[in-house]
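SEQUENCE-TO-STRUCTURE ENTRY
===========================
What this section holds: a protein sequence and its matching fold, both as plain text.
Tokens: labelled as protein backbone structure tokens, with as many entries as the chain has residues.
Question of interest: how does this chain fold, as expressed in backbone structure tokens?
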Amino acid sequence: MFESEGQAMELLSAEVELATSPLNSNNEKERTRKTWRQRISDQVCDWDNCKEEFYLSFVSSHAFVKNRCSKCFVELRFYIKCTACLDSYCYECDQRQHLTSPFHHRTFFSEMHSKVLLPTQFVDCNGGLINQDVFVPCVAPNTCASCSENGTL
């Protein structure tokens, strides 16, 4: 970037000198402190200017994308995306996969909307939501955590 180390040092020293010059220190003294109300008002204006961009980014990140099932590779009209598995599933493969994995975070995507699914919610062949009981893994420890004896809890 710089032809020599000397040029870099000269540029750095010039920047330091400019930053510490009396002209800059006077500008700092001339600056007035803003009140809390002015600072909040400025933040609200900044948010108003950029919230549309944030909203569009959020919506596009949750948009429906033509996809294929990660298990059976069928093309999907709607799909379920699991953030734990990092896969997209058709309704049949989702049921097979997540009947025994109730703690995975799944989202249903269609062309019109998206919805976070509860562990007991699944999708039928028409894209409608159905409720279904799921198996919750419950494993009792063999030994007591405090006394280390078998058969006592």
